[in-house]
Amino acid sequence: MENSSYNPYVTERIRRLDGALMGACYSAPFMHCEQESTALLNGSNIISLHNQLPDTPERIIIPLVGNSLARFLQAPENYPSLQLKNVSLAINYASLVKDEAALREAAQHHAFWLYDLAPPGTCWKNIASFPFRGIVLNDNFFNDNYLKFSFPFLLGSCREREAEVILRTPQLALPLSVYEDLQLSGWQEQRTSSTLFEV
Prior knowledge:
alpha/beta; about 25% helix; disordered N terminus
């Protein structure tokens, strides 16, 4: 039975290529990020991450966009739980361009991942110069580019910067050897048809 009193909430598991769970990506509105709190999750929410994963994942990725990102950037120091070693904040390219200076300042104490690489009009210099800890490729970008000659060089440049690269896809459609040859760190199980960032 579906409970319509809850807003849509989707936890997307992040797995290594061998299938082992390595983390989770979930919605920021359900975070418990009060200034006085060190709690990372909203324990009163029946569908919180506590109730979906048996153990604390080694990696937690929290998407921030729009008002959530603006509130965070006003005072990043007010969110100490988002500085934990296993927590990263996900942004998209549009947010990087709009708030680059504030994001660079926040990146001194917070880890950032870039989702939905290379929308039309991308300036690669902006991406290359930002200290991303990880890059997440969407399914369409991966499928359009993984056979291109330049694709391994793109992934290699990320690895040189020690940034992980994962693929967000509903399922791994290609033979495992293709992903292993490209040295992807893992994949995120996409559970909705939408992009991760809805404004």
